Recover the amino acids of this structure.
């Protein structure tokens, strides 16, 4: 049902909002109150992009997913991109499958949810200047034109470039790419690789999630890469990043705790 209503499936969602404001929300992991708060606080934004990892670990995983899906269908300015937890291999170990079984909905819903994972974009490109991804940049496919050719409908995904976009992390202390700590096929990328990617694609800013940040938001590489993490599950603050498009891209960070969302019934 949701797949039919979500429209065209593309690897890179390209949007132009002019001199507007784009809001980015990191991993929510079942934090329905944080997702609701972000949507309500972003009414005046021209684009609201959720950077994946909607399910697993949290208390309201299915409700969080359904709320954001409905929101993205009702409002074309709300975008969801794929995270590494939008995958059956992760759902088996981090709680989403178990939640569906507990609710008696696994046999009814899970097959369609997995199909839905495969139609979510890997990236959101705003005004050709700011790129939103879940994880990071891949070793190959350094041009976004290559990303446009990534296969869709892949459950894992098995394509190396797509996999690394969901899984890779930045590092301030290495050059190029080195094997990552998250397992086989994952990599860390250094400032030089990042700078080459940004120059190749004429980008001003890369916004990503994927890593726990106690303060909710952290910038790297001379403020050209920002990590936003919005999950309550990990005990830190929830980050929300607003990016304003002027002659120069300007971003501001907001952090909240569960008590500030105004939705105590979800605490």
């Amino acid at each position: 049902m949701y797949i039919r209503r979500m429209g065209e499936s593309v690897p890179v969602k390209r949007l132009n909002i002019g001199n507007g404001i784009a809001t980015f929300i990191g991993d929510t992991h079942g934090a329905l109150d944080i997702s609701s708060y972000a949507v309500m606080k972003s009414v005046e934004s021209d684009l609201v992009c959720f950077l994946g990892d909607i399910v697993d670990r949290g208390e309201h995983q299915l409700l969080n997913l359904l709320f954001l899906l409905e929101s993205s269908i009702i409002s074309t300015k709300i975008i969801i991109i794929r995270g590494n937890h939008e995958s059956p291999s992760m759902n088996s170990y981090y709680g989403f499958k178990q939640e569906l079984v507990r609710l008696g909905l696994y046999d009814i819903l899970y097959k369609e949810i997995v199909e839905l994972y495969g139609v979510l974009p890997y990236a959101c490109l705003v005004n050709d200047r700011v790129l939103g991804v879940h994880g990071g940049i891949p070793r190959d496919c350094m041009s976004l034109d290559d990303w446009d050719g990534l296969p869709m409908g892949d459950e894992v995904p098995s394509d190396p470039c797509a996999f690394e976009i969901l899984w890779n992390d930045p590092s301030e202390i290495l050059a190029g790419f080195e094997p990552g700590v998250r397992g086989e096929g994952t990599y860390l990328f250094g400032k030089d690789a990042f700078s080459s990617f940004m120059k190749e694609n004429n980008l001003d800013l890369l916004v990503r999630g994927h890593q726990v940040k106690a303060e909710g938001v952290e910038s790297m590489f001379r403020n050209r890469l920002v990590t936003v993490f919005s999950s309550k599950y990990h005990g830190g603050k929830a980050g929300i990043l607003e990016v304003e498009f002027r002659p120069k891209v300007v971003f501001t960070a907001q952090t909240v705790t569960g008590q500030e969302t105004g939705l105590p019934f979800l605490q």
Observations:
- Confidence is low (pLDDT under 50) at residues 259-267.
- The longest strand covers residues 238-245.
